[in-house]
Amino acid sequence: MLHYSIVFFVIAIIAGVLGFGGIAGSAVEIAKILFGVFIILSILSFIFGRRR
After folding, report:
1. In the predicted model, is pLDDT for residue 43 greater than 80?
2. Among 14, 16, 34, 46, which residue carries the largest CB count within 10 Å?
3. Residue 50 and residue 35: Cα distance in Å, rounded?
4. pTM of the predicted model as reported, rounded to 2 decimal places
C-alpha cells in the first residue's frame, strides 16, 4: 500500500510539472488517503502482532 501512495505522489509531481493541475490534485489526494491507511494498518499490525 505504501508503494501505491508513492506511485500516486510521483504521478502528481509529473502532472504538476507538465501543467495538469486537476490530475495532480487528484493524485495527491489519493496518495494522502493511501498513506494514511498504510500508517493505520501498520500500527494495528504492530500492536496485534505483539500480543502473540
Report:
1. yes
2. 34
3. 23
4. 0.62
